[in-house]
Design brief:
The protein has helices at residues 3-12, 22-37, 72-75; strands spanning 46-51, 85-86, 93-98, 104-109, 120-125, 133-139, 142-146, 152-159, 163-171, 179-180, 182-183, 195-200, 213-220, 225-228, 237-238, 244-246, 249-255, 262-267, 275-278, 292-295, 303-308, 313-319, 323-327, 341-344, 350-355, 367-372, 380-382, 395-396, 402-406, 410-414, 421-422, 424-425. The chain is mostly beta strands and 426 residues long. The longest helix has 16 residues, at 22-37. It comes from Plantactinospora endophytica.
Length: 426
C-alpha cells in the first residue's frame, strides 16, 4: 500500500475533525500515524519555510504590522470582487490550486457529506472566479501541481480509489484532457521551460519515519517526459514534496542522512549543483518521529524558516548576504498542537497563524494572526479582512497572488494578503 493511500485511509477511518477535507486528510493521517507509533505524545515538530512573494516587492516604511497598499502589479490582474461565479458541480471543495489570480482550479467531491475515497470532479476558472466550468470527467487528482495557466501535473492511481501504482499525468488544456508522462534519461539540469518534481525512490529504504523517499526529476512539457536529475541534493527528500522555484532558484527541504536533522537546500544553476543549510539546533529524528518540513520561496533571496514544537516557536530569516539568521520576537507567539502556518505578503510582512480554539488538528477552532514587518522583529496581533474564521493553508500563485479555501465551500483570494475576497458561491 502506498504512503498516500495509507495516510488517507487512516485519516478517514475515524470521524474526521470539523470541516476536514482532502488537503488536510493527508496531514491529519500523517499526524495520527506518528502519534500512534510513538509513546511520547506532543513531540512532533512542524517546520515551515516561507519566502517573500513571487510578485515584485513594494517596500513600505515602518515596522508596525497591518494593512498595506495593494501591489498594483498584482492588483491589475486580480480576481473580480463584485460577482463571484456559481460552481457548476455540487460537491464539496477538496483542494484549491491557482496558476495566477485569474486561472483557478478546484477539486470537488463526487459523494455527499465530505471526504470520500472516490473520484473528484475538477472545475476551473479563467477569469478569476467570475465563471466556473467543469474540466474533463471525474478522476483522482492527488499531489496536484499547477505549473502554468493551463498546464497541470497530477499523480493518478492506476487502480482507483488510490490503489496500485501512482503515475504522473499532464494536462495542457486546463484539465480538460490528460496524457500519461513518459520517462527520459538523466539530465544534468532543468532545461528552459522545464519544472522540477520529486518522485518516489523505491531503491531507497524509508529512513525517515512515516515518510516516503523521493528523488528530483525534471518534467519537460515540450516532450511530456520526466527525467531524473543527475545531481541530487545531499539530504533525503520525502513525501513527493513540492519543489519551489523562483528568482532562478530551486528550493527543497529534507533531512540530513547522518545527523537526521532538517536541511534546506537550494540550487542557482537549475539543479546542476546544490548548497545546503543544516538546522543543527533542531531536534533530530527519533525512532518513531521526525520534524515536518514544508517550503515555499520567492524572489529577492529573503526567506523564512518557522520551527515549531509543543513548547516554543523559532523564526529564521534568510537573505543572500546574511544567510540564515534567527529573528527575535517569534517567542512571544503561543505554540502547540494548533495548526500553525505562515505566509509573506507582497509588502514583505511575515504573517503567522494558528488555531485559537478547539481540539488539535485541521478544521478545529478559529484562527488568529500575528505579523511582523519586513524590517521589524516584533510579531503583533493583526486582522485579515474578508478571510473566514476557518480556512485551508494560505498558498501563493506564481504571480504573487495569495489564495485559500475557506469554510462553507468558498474559495478566497488576495492581492495584498490583508484584504480577501470570495471567488465562488453556491
Amino acid at each position: 500500500m502506498t504512503e498516500l493511500r495509507e495516510l488517507f485511509e487512516d485519516a478517514t477511518s475515524a470521524p474526521p475533525p470539523t470541516r476536514l477535507l482532502a488537503d488536510e486528510v493527508y496531514a491529519a493521517g500523517r499526524r495520527r500515524l506518528r502519534r500512534r507509533r510513538t509513546a511520547m505524545s506532543g513531540t512532533a515538530f512542524a517546520v515551515t519555510a516561507c519566502a517573500v512573494a513571487t510578485a515584485a516587492l513594494a517596500a513600505v516604511p515602518g515596522t508596525a504590522p497591518g494593512p498595506a497598499p495593494v501591489d498594483e502589479r498584482v492588483a491589475a490582474t486580480a480576481a473580480p470582487t463584485d460577482r463571484p461565479g456559481v460552481l457548476p458541480y455540487p460537491g464539496r471543495i477538496q483542494w484549491m490550486r491557482a496558476a495566477d489570480s485569474r486561472h483557478l482550479y478546484l477539486a470537488l467531491s463526487t459523494c455527499p457529506g465530505g471526504p470520500c475515497k472516490t473520484d473528484w470532479q475538477l472545475v476551473g476558472s479563467d477569469d478569476g472566479g467570475r465563471t466556473w466550468t467543469e474540466r474533463g470527467t471525474p478522476g483522482w487528482y492527488a499531489t496536484a501541481l499547477v505549473l502554468g495557466p493551463e498546464l497541470l501535473l497530477v499523480d493518478r492511481p492506476t487502480q482507483p480509489p488510490g490503489g496500485g501504482e501512482w503515475r504522473l499525468a499532464a494536462s495542457r488544456d486546463g484539465g480538460r484532457s490528460w496524457q500519461p508522462t513518459g520517462t527520459g534519461p538523466a539530465v544534468a539540469a532543468l532545461a528552459a521551460g522545464s519544472f522540477a518534481v520529486c518522485r518516489p525512490a523505491p531503491e531507497r529504504p524509508p529512513v525517515i519515519p512515516g515518510g516516503e523517499p523521493c528523488r528530483l526529476h525534471a518534467f519537460d512539457p515540450a516532450t511530456n517526459r520526466v527525467s531524473p536529475l543527475a545531481k541530487q541534493p545531499p539530504q533525503t527528500l520525502i513525501d513527493r514534496q513540492v519543489v519551489e522555484e523562483s528568482a532562478d532558484r530551486l528550493w527543497v527541504s529534507g533531512y540530513d542522512r547522518n545527523t537526521r536533522r532538517p536541511v534546506i537546500a537550494t540550487s542557482t544553476d537549475r539543479g546542476r549543483s546544490w548548497s545546503s543549510h543544516n538546522f543543527a539546533e533542531m531536534s533530530e529524528c527519533g525512532a518513531d518521529d521526525c520534524p515536518l518540513v514544508q517550503l515555499s520561496v520567492g524572489p529577492g533571496g529573503v526567506d523564512y524558516a518557522v520551527i515549531t514544537d509543543a513548547r516554543s516557536r523559532t523564526v529564521y530569516r534568510h537573505s543572500a548576504t546574511e544567510g540564515w539568521q534567527r529573528r527575535p520576537g517569534a517567542g512571544e507567539i503561543p505554540s502547540g498542537w494548533s495548526d500553525p502556518g505562515s505566509f509573506v505578503t507582497p509588502d514583505g510582512s511575515h504573517v503567522m497563524y494558528e488555531a485559537s480554539a478547539g481540539s488539535p488538528g485541521p478544521g478545529s477552532g478559529d484562527y488568529r494572526f500575528r505579523a511582523a514587518r519586513r524590517t521589524g522583529t516584533s510579531y503583533q496581533p493583526v486582522e485579515l479582512h474578508g478571510l473566514p474564521a476557518m480556512f485551508s493553508p494560505v498558498l501563493r500563485a506564481r504571480d504573487g497572488w495569495l489564495y485559500a479555501r475557506g469554510d462553507g465551500d468558498v474559495s478566497y483570494g488576495s492581492a495584498d494578503g490583508w484584504n480577501w475576497v470570495p471567488l465562488n458561491r453556491r
